[in-house]
Amino acid sequence: MKARCKGDSNVQELGARTVFFVRDAEQALRFYTETLGFSVDWCHREAGRAFVCQVSLLGLQLILNQAEDWTRDRPGHGRLFVGVDDDVLEPFQRHLRDKKVKSTVFNWGEPTLVIHDLDENELFFWLPENERASLKAPPGDT
Questions:
Q1: Could you count the other beta carbons within 10 Å of the beta carbon of residue 72?
Q2: Residues linked to residue 2 through DSSP beta bridges, in sequence order
Q3: What is the CATH number of the domain that holds 23?
Q4: DSSP states of 73-133 as a string?
Q5: Beta partners for 19?
Q6: How far, in Å, CA of 128 to CA of 137, rounded?
Q7: Mean pLDDT over residues 98-127, rounded?
Q8: Which helix or strand (DSSP H or E) is residue 15 part of?
Q9: Is the dihedral of CA 127, 75, 52, 43 positive or negative?
Q10: Which 8-state DSSP code applies to residue 58?
């Protein structure tokens, strides 16, 4: 995901990635790769175990960071919002179907597809308008 500065003919790009703190980076890495089907871009290991890793799926890049004493309260407080454009909708839906990814629908102004990781970090997927209309959020969900 890249941010661009408008009005500059020599546009420089900033590479932005969300960092999810996790209780067990090794387990989180397995969940993201085996259950959700992400690929490992890189992984820093300490004492032979995953510590900080980047995973990606269909252009989405996410960093998983092992919580330490000073960050122990951070796992489970992450939320990533992803807009799914029409051109990636079909591959995205096929991927979820093929991997049998468990998701819920949450009304976040409009019905929004939500996937939770092992630490309850949230991935919010905003589908194109014609697809959002077919999602059903539980009654009273706001």
A1: 10
A2: 15
A3: 3.10.180.10
A4: T-TT--EEEEE--HHHHHHHHHHHHHHT---EEEESSSEEEEEE-TT--EEEEE--HHHHT
A5: 63
A6: 16
A7: 92
A8: strand 13-15
A9: negative
A10: T
Asked if the structure places residue 34 within a domain, the reply is yes
Whether residue 137 is predicted with pLDDT greater than 70 in this model: the reply is: no
Q: What is the pLDDT of residues 23-74, one digit of tens each?
A: 999 999 999 999 999 999 999 999 999 999 999 998 899 999 999 999 899 9
Distance CA 118, CA 21 (A): 11
Is 0.90 topped by the overall pTM?
no
Name the amino acid, one letter, at 6: K
Flag whether pLDDT at 106 surpasses 70: yes
Which range of residues forms the domain containing residue 95? 17-67+76-132
